[in-house]
Amino acid sequence: MRKLLITFLLGGLTIFPVWAADKPPVQVTVADPFIELHSGPNINFPVYDVVERGELINILRRRTDWFEIRASKNREGWVRKDQLEATLAAAGIQPTLRDKLVDNYLDSRFRFDAAGGVFEGEGIVTIRGGYRATNNVTVEMSFSNISGVFADSVLFQTNVMIELHVLNSLRPYGFMGVGYFTNVPDNLSSGDPLVSPEKDDLPTAQFGVGVQYFFTKSFLLRAEIEQLSTLQGNKPSDKFLSGTLGVGFFF
Length: 251
What we know:
- The chain is mainly beta.
- It is 12% helix and 55% strand.
- It has four helices and 14 strands.
- It has helices at residues 2-9, 85-90, 97-106, 186-190, and strands spanning 26-29, 34-38, 47-52, 56-63, 66-70, 76-80, 110-119, 122-132, 137-147, 151-163, 170-185, 200-214, 219-232, 235-250.
- An eight-stranded antiparallel beta barrel has the order 7-8-9-10-11-12-13-14.
């Protein structure tokens, strides 16, 4: 819904241009130490040239957080928005309402993830909701259902994730947190009068590592391995290992 609203506010343009094709280019002097020209509007496109401070450039258009520019000798390429901040400020170019809407959209901090995998040899399905507090730190809450042969379990967790930006599209991470584990044996749920198993409700502590691959700025593939320990008093009792693979998106 939010994406559809912003797209409508931006005139129904999926690439969110700042300057329309029928408007003349904006000419500015590079105030940043240098800017890198990529062959396309993505960090995965190679850098093929560099424009030095003091050179004149023409800003042709914007696509998400990338600007297409033309430098001397008809060199054209794409530059990340953060490499033009000093240049735009020095030229007195103030962000328009459209710019602010685009930036707010691109700076989406809420995320939703869904994953499936294995929890000690049994199937697990997990959904997560998170808030990106900084570029590297995200706080997540998750709900998991574990379907076993002899018992079904429910797991609630709160984790703090710390990301490493190795590449713009590839981001390994580590996490740790606490949670609550409820284990319900099948014969308890079935009401078997011959057996009286106990239902376990235990606090947990967990940590793990994973990696995210961003197909776009908002859509990603995620894989992780986690070790979970149930707690009795202040001491860990049972330990469990799980691995999941899933997808996520920011909104």
